[in-house]
Design brief:
The protein has 197 residues and is mainly alpha-helical. Helix content is 55%, strand content 9%. Its main location: mitochondrion.
Length: 197
């Protein structure tokens, strides 16, 4: 027989410390550890919001390319035209029409942001940050090979330039490839003679 819940039993149940569902540990002990990371030096601008629906003309097209029958026979590709500017965006990123609608709207918002803000748009700032990282990596690579060339020059007693050091690396690579090809040829000819016996 079940007894009805009274205020006293409800308050007693609420007064108990919450526990982790499977192990009986307090909930605080079950929470994952948190780590703090350093904030980025330059805050990225927020993602732009898509324009209002009244400014858009949307049509659905049959897709093309990989994806099979789902892409080729259904109108899942989305084409959006921004009426005030005349910008047309087509999205066929997924096989889902709703996902393609979201992607097309975000691409249109980014394109309008570029048009309105130019160098201060989110895509320009993100692209600049990526280019800066790429340039830094290339500079680090150049420094590394320059240092290797200098060490090689000291070891041989000659001065070599970076270009000469790269040529040496290429020649060594070609020589290693030739040796490997010769070994393969020898092993194949060895297998053929064994097969003939």
């Amino acid at each position: 027989m079940l007894r009805p819940l009274t205020r006293l039993t409800v308050s007693l149940r609420l007064a108990r410390a919450p526990t982790h569902a499977h192990h009986g540990f307090p909930a605080a002990a079950a929470a994952p550890f948190t780590t703090t990371t350093a904030a980025p030096l330059k805050q990225m601008p927020p993602r732009p919001k898509p324009p209002p629906e009244s400014d858009l003309e949307e049509s659905f097209l049959k897709g093309s390319g990989p994806g099979g029958q789902k892409i080729n026979k259904t109108s899942s590709a989305v084409q959006i035209k921004h009426i005030p500017t005349g910008i047309v965006i087509k999205s066929q990123a997924t096989r889902s029409r709703s996902e393609n609608r979201k992607i097309a709207r975000s691409l249109l918002a980014l394109r309008l942001d570029e048009l309105a803000n130019g160098d201060q748009s989110r895509t320009a700032i993100v692209g600049g940050a990526k280019k800066k990282r790429s340039d830094s990596a290339a500079k680090k690579s150049r420094r590394k090979y320059k240092k290797l060339a200098e060490e090689a020059a000291e070891a041989t007693g000659k001065e070599t330039t970076l270009k000469q050091a790269e040529e040496v690396d290429v020649e060594e690579g070609k020589a290693a490839e030739q040796e490997a090809a010769e070994r393969v040829m020898q092993s194949e000819t060895g297998n053929n003679t064994n097969a003939q016996k």
